[in-house]
């Protein structure tokens, strides 16, 4: 964080600022429109009216990595797609998180063969793993809320300079 | 982790026009991560301003090696992967796999199971057309259509979950019948769908069919004639929108489809608008089939009693010795299919979904090839997109209704 | 076997000398690899407009005809289905292309080159289609390993954790 | 008289202030990790082919100019809309004349095919 680099830990002042920053991050975290396979269909129904992820601040699925804070890897990552996924992760601006949705993204799932990367944590650092094949929309929303706990728990001190 | 390979113009020079080599036209990636490619399809576009001079599709970004993986699994375990191929037509995939295995081992299926299979397959066709209608209307800026379609889709997913416990990847259809009988509330839920959905389809029709915006964006765009379709191996709604009346449910019926009377909608223009009309009419016909199948649902067993291939019901295991032996053998080693090679095809929402299954007498398929419709339907995209605007290309991709799990396998 | 498939089959057998066989109602004709393009032209002339499937089978330990390339034709007008099988040797397997007759053979042949290593002479743009461009080996061959990696459960969590290439930030 | 101008000045001041605050907070507090990969142009995850800047077809410029032209026309509606009740019939006729002139330009552009893409 910018202020942390400049002012260092100032007790009360930075904790209230942390809460303010955490509040602003968790209430408007825009995921990147990055559907790969079957989990993308469940992500779409989680985004649609019935389950409505917009209630949790995910109002828009931004197609370009420049305007997104969160990458939901929804689906199986093939060997040909892995470098593209890494490039998209690098092009996202800094406070960024990754949810690996579904078994195929988390550990290769039912496809244990030459074509699938066995777990997307070999390509991008993952914050939250959501189990299920495909996980129900409620499971994805539960994953999102666990990510929000992680974001709220972030202290400025440990943030990488 | 290898980096992305650098592609220069000269190693594509046999594909692009010479104006690209002189740098007059722009080579642009409508790449794997793009909102309107309906999945991880990469189109290398050669653009002259907004006009698409050349479109070179590049697929394989979702290649899961299903055919190789299925060779390493027994027939029961391999079916689980069949669901994930065309993830919008999950019941259709397991139906294609089960019909292929039943044809190979010559297994009978009780009539009740066949009727329930038809009901679930037609509901899946309806749900797949809903996702197509929602996403391709969203590409044409009809945002609310996406929300309406996914609202209806929840009802169908509830029925699937009621039967099998899983919303999408049900694996409910097994070689020899079904996993178990449908629950009691099944009939009421499907009746409710049959009561409300025709009105919903009329709502979509009212919103889009005579909408001047939709007409400007879809009428006369992406034309394909019947001969071109057949030459490209295009099947399904795209072929029927070009005037060729070829529907596997009608012409090569399977699983009891010959007992139902339904119309196969065809148009002659063969453009994006004709495909929209054909798919909308197919949604109505699917409801008619479900109606007739539900009225005629016979009682009886849902699994064949040929226990060499079909696990016996749990109640019998405690009683008879053969059932225990069959059960134990089937779930540890799987059944040995006779030596031979067969090809059996079903009509998926996208076209002819065929399974070439070859067995060498062992418990595992020696070779299984999935003839998926989107693989061939996508090959006609470069022909359709010559000289159109990029915005029209988006409408054409929507009308082809590709599912990348289907294309890359 | 549908009755109006007989004359076509008889004529094809006479002209290309293949051996016909029927299994579960599917008629298939084995044709030597030299005559496949002429056979496909003849089949297309007979009214089989749709090449519904083009795939291959790898009989690995046998070396002489190691691959069987399978052409599956469908006639929409006459509602008929016919299969042609072509044995191909294992050492630098190659076949002439039929993408000028059926345009969907273009990608199908590219897939066979990518997955089995069967070269199609005369193909306009024979590149890998499903695997990355710099991939070595042809995955669907029987002697190509499945690429199975041991899944990480609780009992073997630590030792797999050591050698799992986690992504650095 | 001065009071109205003060109100407009305050309005302009507050709007620019809000703009600068929003961007300023971002630059001060936002973490900055510029990596070379992040600076590369985004082309749906692939490497762009060929130079980024090249000759653009003139039609893009044409459409941009037409847009600006008719956009400014709508800008003139806003002050007119505030006071058109006091102006009465004269204001209405004046505005219709203004629109008519611009419509002539619009039909000219339409017939010359500036709106079609080819």
Give a quick rundown of the structure.
The complex is a heterotetramer of chains A (161), B (409), C (169) and D (118). With 161 residues, chain A is an alpha/beta fold.
Can you lay out the helices and strands and say which pair or pack?
The complex is a heterotetramer of chains A (161), B (409), C (169) and D (118).
Chain A (H helix, E strand, L loop, with lengths): L1 H6 L4 H15 L4 E2 L5 H10 L22 E5 L7 H9 L6 E5 L1 H5 L20 E3 L6 H16 L9
Parallel strand pairs in A: 1-2, 2-3, 3-4
Helix pairs in contact in A: 3-6
Chain B lengths: L17 H4 L4 E5 L11 E7 L2 E8 L7 H6 L3 H9 L6 H16 L5 H29 L3 H22 L8 E2 L2 E2 L7 H23 L3 H7 L7 H7 L4 H5 L6 H4 L20 H24 L18 H4 L3 H12 L7 E9 L2 E9 L7 E5 L1 H7 L1 H4 L5 H11 L3 H5 L1
Antiparallel strand pairs in B: 1-2, 2-3, 4-5, 6-7, 7-8
Chain D lengths: L1 H28 L6 H4 L18 H54 L7
Uncertain segments of chain C are none
Strand order of the largest sheet of chain A: 1-2-3-4
Task: Write down the overall mean pLDDT of chain C.
Answer: 90
| Main beta-sheet strand count, sense and barrel state of chain C | 5 strands, mixed
Number of strands of chain A: 4
Number of domains of chain C: 1
Percentage beta strand of chain A? 5-15%
Order of helices and strands of chain A: HHEHEHEHEH
Could you name the CATH homologous superfamily of chain C?
NADH:ubiquinone oxidoreductase Nqo5 subunit
What's the helical proportion of residues of chain A? 25-40%
What's the shape of chain A? Answer: globular
How would you write the strand order of the largest sheet of chain C?
A: 1-2-5-4-3
Q: What percent of residues of chain C are in strands?
A: 25-35%
Largest sheet of chain A: 4 strands, parallel
Radius of gyration of chain C: 20 Å
The span between the termini of chain C is 63 Å
N/C terminus separation of chain A: 7 Å
Query: Which term fits the overall shape of chain C?
Result: elongated
- Interface with most residues: B-C, 45 and 43 residues
Keywords:
heterotetramer, C: 169 residues, alpha/beta, Beta Polymerase, domain 2, five-stranded mixed sheet, two-stranded parallel ribbon, 4 helices, 7 strands, 24% helix, 25% strand, elongated, D: 118 residues, mainly alpha, 3 helices, 0% strand, flat
Description:
The complex is a heterotetramer of chains A (161), B (409), C (169) and D (118). Chain A has 161 residues and is of the alpha/beta class. Chain A has helices at residues 2-7, 12-26, 38-47, 82-90, 103-107, 137-152; strands at residues 31-32, 70-74, 97-101, 128-130. In chain A, helix 3 (38-47) crosses helix 6 (137-152). Chain A starts with a helix and ends in a 9-residue tail after the last helix. The mean pLDDT of chain A is 86. Chain B contains 18 helices and eight strands. Chain B is globular and about 80 Å long. Chain B starts with 17 loop residues before the first helix and ends with a helix. The mean pLDDT of chain B is 92. Chain C has 169 residues and is of the alpha/beta class. Chain C has a single domain, classed as NADH:ubiquinone oxidoreductase Nqo5 subunit (Beta Polymerase, domain 2, 2-Layer Sandwich), CATH 3.30.460.80. Chain C is built from four helices and seven strands. The model of chain C has no long low-confidence stretch (mean pLDDT 90). Chain D is mainly α and 118 residues long. Chain D is 73% helix and 0% strand. Chain D starts with a helix and ends in a 7-residue tail after the last helix. The model of chain D has no long low-confidence stretch (mean pLDDT 88). The chains are: A alpha/beta (161), B mainly alpha (409), C alpha/beta (169), D mainly alpha (118). Chains in contact: A-B, A-C, A-D, B-C, B-D.
